[in-house]
Amino acid sequence: MRYLLIVLMLVASPLWAVQPDEVLDDPVLETRARLISKNLRCLVCRNESIDESNAGIAKDLRLLVRERLVAGDSNTDVVEFIVDRYGEYVLLKPQSGGSNLILWGAGPAMLIMGLGLSGLYLRRRSRRVETKMDALTDEEKARLQQILKD
């Protein structure tokens, strides 16, 4: 019984992030608010939506979402308003267009460049002719023996 209670508490913990005083009276607006909140990142927490976060700024963002919905904004208008205010970082799933294409393509491009440069280096290294070193002269052997004795 005790384990069941612990499991239920762990499963329900994200539900406790939205406080009862934040919940809208209109269930349709509240459903829309929860849907929007699940796709917005908490600016303090790492990869946690504002719907799940207990941080103060997450609460402020949840209230802002609900305020905009009550004002009559559509879901897209609310998201655009928050992105305009806080930047694209606030989106849990960033857009894959515009300047973000550079960020999305930079990783694979750097990998390909690195592999290409490594291949060139190994190819040049294998073609390099090794030079044979001449044997030590008697004078150099004597000097080496003297150094090794010290």
Automatic annotation (TrEMBL):
Residues 6-148 form the CcmH/CycL/Ccl2/NrfF N-terminal domain. The keyword Iron applies. Residues 1-17 form the signal peptide. The chain crosses the membrane at residues 101-122. Gene3D superfamilies: Cytochrome C biogenesis protein. Possible subunit of a heme lyase. Belongs to the CcmH/CycL/Ccl2/NrfF family. This is Cytochrome c-type biogenesis protein.
